Amino acid sequence: MFQWLTTEGSELKSHIPGSTNYITDGRNRKKYGLEGLPGDSKPFPSNPHFKSERILSEELRNDIYHRVVVKKQSVRAVSTDTGVDMRRVAAVCRLVELEKQWREQGKPLALPYARAVHEMVPTTKLQRDPRLQRERPHEQINDLPAHRLTDAQIFYPVSESRQFTRVDAGRVFSAAPARLRGDDQDDQPWEVVRDLNLGERRIEAVGKGDSEQRVLLPADVRIPHPHLITLESERAANPDSLRDVWRAHEKRLKEGNEAEEKRKQRKQEAHDRQVSRVQPRSSRFEFRIKDVVVSKETTGTDGRNAKAPGRRYGVPRSDRKKGQVKIPTYVLV
User: Could you tell me where the Basic and acidic residues compositional bias lies (predicted)?
Assistant: First the structure.
């Protein structure tokens, strides 16, 4: 050990600012020079399958907060431009806002610890060129978790002359009848999402009662950024007019954001119509009253359906019954 500390380990005593200090970095510096092997994120030499995940740099984190909070850009647009997942963009805005509140309250911040962590793990830098920022994303922003309906293996016979698409596969997984030929064949994914937000299209439902479920939409529609599919197809089809392609992409993104805002506004208005607000005089409390509709479609046959408030009113809980499992059997992530 002491021999390693005096030979190869001595190079790891002080690291180069702005880079990691892994054992593999010392070996790569000998082999590839002072810069080391670019893009190497394997800290353990004996475990090449483990890769160190990148974190956001301070500059990129502050730029995301400035775009969303100050410039009022949409989370979807910021996620597309910076290559950061929308959930991480929202988390960055919340954490930066919390950090500002702590500074105003005079609470101490663990800045030395943060600097040490940023020196230990690889970071994603803020690129001044927006094109480079998009070409070098921080993470995959269009990841889609596996849906529970796709777990089953289904053997569905299809004739060779029929064009079987992802839309048809979703209907098969949902046990929905086959669609007619020519229905929604040429619709782009972003057009489907826009029509759903505007209320011009509804997701078909199959089943009755408690067994009712929505038809599974194709993955191109369920991903966080369906407009990127159209962007890539147009870039491949029109490589000589990229400026027009990007203009059309920005226009689609703007239309999608406007449709999303209209959907949220329409949902809020529907909620306000169902709730009566009463605030007595000389009181700081406001009572919000919502009428409960007790029917088979809302509360269900056993009174425990989640489609209406007060679903357990007058119905005893089942946790006291014999044989009920009271320990958690799964964790919601």
Answer: 253-275
- Model pLDDT for residues 242-273, shown as the tens digit of each residue: 889 888 888 888 888 888 889 999 999 998 99
**pTM of the entire predicted model:** 0.74
Phi, psi of 213 (to 5 degrees): -150, 155
pLDDT of residue 109: 92
Domain with 84 in it: 55-135
Give strand ranges (E) for 49-173: 55-56, 123-124
| Strand 205-206 relative to strand 213-214, pairing | antiparallel
Q: Is 15 part of a structural domain of the chain? A: no
Give pLDDT < 50 ranges for the chain: 36-39, 311
| Residue 172 covered by a domain | yes
pLDDT tens per residue across span 138-149: 988 888 888 888
Q: Which amino acid type is present at position 111?
A: L
Bridge partners, 289 (sequence order):
276
Give φ, ψ of 124 to 5 degrees. Answer: -95, 115
Cβ–Cβ < 8 Å for 217, 174: no
Instruction: Let me know if residue 319 belongs to a domain.
Output: no
Structural domain tally of the chain? 2
Count the neighbouring beta carbons within 10 Å of the beta carbon of residue 206. 14
The CA dihedral of 256, 258, 262, 263, to the nearest 10 degrees, is: 20
CB 226 within 8 A of CB 190: yes
On whether both 184 and 247 belong to a single domain, the answer is: yes
Determine, yes or no, domain membership for 305. no
Going by their DSSP bridges, the two strands 123-124 and 55-56 should be labelled as parallel
Lookup: tokens for 185: 């064949």
